[in-house]
Amino acid sequence: MPPVVRLFYVDDSGAEHTGWVVYAWIECTAAGWRDGLLDWLELRRALYADHQIPADYELHATKFVGGRGNPSLDPDWNRQKHLRSLVAEQALQTIGESRHVRVGSVFRRTNARGFQYAQEAADLYAMLIRHLDERLSRVGELGFVIVDGDGRDASYFAPHRALSLTRRQILEDPFFQDSHRSQWVQMADLVAYAVYQHLLRHPGKTFTWRWYETYLRTNDVNKGPLAL
């Protein structure tokens, strides 16, 4: 039988001024891709029916939860910031309960700033790729990595090309999808945001602290964020 092919949709979170760097992902098998997307699109249909949020509106966690933009066609809804956190929780619940997707994340905290902080983020991505490749190797699967972005950040390519060509299980360079075009990348963004808030514990965002534990941990392939 041919090996299982697994897709990893990756997005980052964190901030230089806090020192946290987070990469999170949504994963599914190629065979489960259709059903995983159907679970999410069912949520998007419900968000339109209940809140008038169009299915093609980008659910970018930082902007959406922070109250920026006008996600709903109802101006009154857009002015009620607490409704956004309820929608974010509904989205995270959908991800956590889907039988067709899993989540995962890696992180580190650093005192580096500026260029050095960017180097830390690039190094963490490299360690993420090695982690995924080793995991795929153990179970005899193949994988593709899809990253938020337009491909102009060259730091994403080197970790893939550094893998041994004779043994690597992650195929090709990373593929890139802008989050506003990809429902999968938007899911990964929400996971990354929830993990970051779980780690950061910002006193002004206590309502986000429990999101990872409540909705995602049970669907986490590693049972928790990995420090790399």
Describe this structure in words.
It is built from 8 helices and 6 strands; from the N terminus they run ββααααβαβαβααβ. The chain is of the alpha/beta class and 228 residues long. The chain has a single domain, classed as Ribonuclease H-like superfamily/Ribonuclease H (Nucleotidyltransferase, domain 5), CATH 3.30.420.10. A 6-stranded mixed β-sheet has the order 5-4-1-2-3-6, with helices on both faces. A hairpin with a 4-residue loop joins strand 1 (5-15) and strand 2. The longest helix is centred in the middle third of the chain and has 25 residues, at 115-139.
Walk me through the topology:
Blueprint: E1 5-15, E2 20-29, H1 33-51, H2 61-65, H3 75-78, H4 81-97, E3 102-109, H5 115-139, E4 142-148, H6 157-161, E5 175-177, H7 183-200, H8 211-216, E6 226-227
Parallel strand pairs: 1-4, 3-6, 4-5
Antiparallel strand pairs: 1-2, 2-3
Feature tags:
6 strands, DUF3800, Nucleotidyltransferase, domain 5, 8 helices, DUF3800 domain-containing protein, single chain, 228 residues, six-stranded mixed beta sheet, globular, alpha/beta
Short description:
This protein has a single domain (5-227), classed as Nucleotidyltransferase, domain 5 (2-Layer Sandwich). Helices cover 43% and strands 18% of the residues.
CA(first)-CA(last) distance: 34 Å
Q: How many domain units?
A: 1
Number-wise, the strands total 6
Rg value: 17 Å
**Which regions have little confidence, pLDDT < 50, spanning 5+ residues?**
none
Q: Looking at the structure, what is the overall shape?
A: globular
SSE string, helix = H, strand = E?
EEHHHHEHEHEHHE
Helix percent band: 40-55%
- CATH topology, by name, is Nucleotidyltransferase, domain 5
Name given to the CATH homologous superfamily? Ribonuclease H-like superfamily/Ribonuclease H
- Main beta sheet: 6 strands, mixed
